Structures are given as structure tokens and as C-alpha cells.
Amino acid sequence: MRDSPGDTASEGEGEEVDDESDGLPPRREKFGGNSESSFKMLADSIQKFGAIYEKIENNRRQQMAELERMRKEFHRDLELQKRQILDGAQAEIARIRQEDREEEDEENTDEDDHGENDDTDVSAENMSG
Q1: pTM for the structure as a whole
Q2: What 8-state DSSP symbol labels residue 22?
């Protein structure tokens, strides 16, 4: 048990070991020049920490705003591509339907031509017969 307080005292460090045995730095006097400078140093450290934290938060907000802008732009581009694909598909469907109608019209015209000759022949037979 090398880390136990009893072992460190046996190494001959004296009273300083007792102050450090709880893991805290030695206690200072409440009144004196060192306490004022310590409080000033603590206040300065807190202010520096606050300034650094503020910078970090500002950078985070800027990054989040940039990500949101990029997300909106991506969504806008995606919707545009979707619209273009749908418009192209509708135009292709309309073209195919138009071709089918034209083919049907040609077939009907061919059938009508053959059908009129057959009808004429039948009516001629009926008249002569």
C-alpha cells in the first residue's frame, strides 16, 4: 500500500504530508496579501473562462446556422430535382399517349377504308339482288 498516508509519512516528509494527505493544497491564512491576490487570480480566471466559453458558444451557433442554411439549400435543390423528374415523366407519358392515339387513328383510318368498301359492296349486292 504505497499510496496510503501512513506509508508517505514513514518516508520522512514531516508535517507537509499531513496537509497533502487529503489531496488538497496546504491551507493559507484567511487574512493576508496572498488571499487578495488569490481571489483576484480566481476572478480573472473565471472571466477568461467566461470569455472562452462565449467564443465557443458563438462558434457553435454560427456552425448550427450554417448547417441549417445548408440543409435548407439541399432540401430546395432536392425539391427542384423532384419537380424536374416529375415534369419530364409527365411529358414522356403525354408523348407516349399522343403516339398511341396517332397509331389508333391510323389503324381506324385503315379499317374505315376497308370497311367502307365492304359496306359498299354489300349494299350493291342488296340492290341488285
Answers
A1: 0.45
A2: T
Tell me the HSE value of 89 on the side-chain side, using a 13 A CA sphere: 6
Tell me the three cell numbers of residue 102. 396517332
Rounded Cα gap, residues 108 and 3, in angstroms:
104
List, for residues 97-120, the tens digit of each pLDDT value.
Answer: 999 998 888 888 876 666 555 555
Looking at residue 129, the DSSP 8-state letter turns out to be -
Cell of 122: 354489300
For 65-74, which contacts have Cβ atoms below 8 Å and span 24 or more sequence positions? none
Whole-angstrom Cα distance, residue 91 to residue 125? 51
Backbone angles phi, psi at 50, to 5 degrees: -60, -40
Q: What is the 3-state secondary structure (H, E, C) of 1-20?
A: CCCCHHHHHHCCCCHHHHHH
